[in-house]
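About this split. The held-out portion is used to measure sequence recovery: a designer receives only the structure tokens and must propose an amino acid at every position. Recovery is the fraction of positions where the proposal matches the reference. Here is one held-out target exactly as it appears in the evaluation file.
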């Protein structure tokens, strides 16, 4: 099945947030001024159950979804996540992956692999302990995340992708050390342009380091060349080292928007479906799920939503759009 939207983009990737909670307070995602002790996170009964997530994923699969990414908040905080992975793995999707801050990976990597997880993406914004602690704002040691990456590699959750959000004046000096950390390891670092997701991270265009500048920084020391995408709609632009020691990626939502072949839908932990990372609203699937909707009812809802989709926020981004009441990334995952 190939469900296409108004721009001919097929529904191929489903990102599923399974919790809005996190043990980090990354400044560009969950600044602690807002996500503090008073902040009301989703109560357990509001979260989709693993059965509901698996059933809904099966419905999406019938409509063409082949790749599922589990996100959060921090998904490894959700109790029994391995059970969900096992249920989703039984659907025999083309790809089943998970994005984590790596804090619990040392303990969980082998169990996730045994449950059927294919790969992991680890968010790691600096190799420098002080900068890393400043960015995650909980003083979590970078060495523990590096240990988690090694545990994931040992468990076979490869290739491991590493996401670094680059912010000028904060961690931009860490681009080369991050490239050197992954060079020759098989891990793939993706350098992400700082984005105006949600409306609580104080985004300014001046804080963005364009991908071109990042690539030039690396190329000045290690010659690189562009590589074709693995598939249409792949998020990161691929580059490889000319000496054959691996590849890196850049995610360029600000400088080179890629909405033209965006094939991603996002489901929040409480069952609201969004068709863009920068959406201001979504469609509730929990109520119909719990009210006895059939799979055909759910398919019709998804079909109606996707076939009318026109999203292209990054192409339209301007000063006027930055403060729109966009959904928070910690709520729908990246
Ligand atoms: S801005 Fe929206 S439509 Fe564009 S690539 Fe991102 S998620 Fe897709």
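Reference sequence for scoring:
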């Amino acid at each position: 099945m190939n469900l296409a939207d108004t721009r001919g983009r097929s529904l191929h990737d489903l990102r599923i947030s399974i919790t809005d909670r996190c043990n980090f307070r990354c400044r560009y995602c969950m600044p602690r001024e807002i996500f503090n002790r008073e902040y009301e996170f989703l109560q357990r009964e509001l979260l989709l159950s693993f059965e509901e997530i698996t059933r809904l994923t099966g419905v999406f699969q019938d409509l063409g979804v082949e790749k599922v990414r589990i996100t959060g908040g921090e998904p490894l905080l959700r109790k029994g996540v391995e059970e969900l992975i096992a249920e989703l793995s039984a659907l025999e999707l083309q790809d089943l992956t998970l994005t984590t801050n790596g804090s619990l990976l040392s303990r969980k990597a082998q169990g996730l692999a045994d449950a059927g997880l294919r790969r992991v993406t680890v968010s790691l914004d600096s190799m420098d302990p002080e900068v890393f602690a400043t960015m995650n704002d909980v003083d979590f040691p970078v060495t523990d995340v590096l240990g988690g990456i090694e545990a994931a590699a040992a468990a076979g959750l490869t290739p491991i992708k590493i996401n670094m959000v680059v912010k000028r004046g904060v961690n931009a000096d860490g681009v080369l050390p991050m490239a050197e950390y992954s060079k020759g390891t098989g891990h793939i670092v993706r350098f992400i342009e700082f984005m105006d997701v949600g409306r609580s991270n104080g985004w300014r265009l001046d804080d963005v380091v364009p991908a071109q500048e990042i690539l030039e920084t690396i190329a000045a020391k290690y010659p690189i060349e562009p590589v074709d995408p693995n598939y249409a709609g792949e998020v990161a632009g691929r580059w490889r080292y000319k000496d054959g020691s691996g590849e890196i990626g850049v995610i360029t939502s600000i400088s080179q928007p890629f909405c033209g072949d965006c094939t991603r839908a996002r489901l929040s932990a409480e069952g609201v479906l969004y068709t863009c990372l920068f959406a201001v609203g979504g469609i509730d699937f929990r109520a119909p799920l719990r009210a006895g909707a059939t799979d055909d009812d759910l398919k019709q809802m998804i079909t109606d939503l996707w076939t009318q989709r026109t999203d292209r926020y990054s192409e339209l981004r301007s000063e006027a759009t930055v403060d729109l009441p966009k959904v928070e990334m910690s709520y729908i995952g990246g």
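Annotator remark: The first strand starts at residue 13 and ends at 17.
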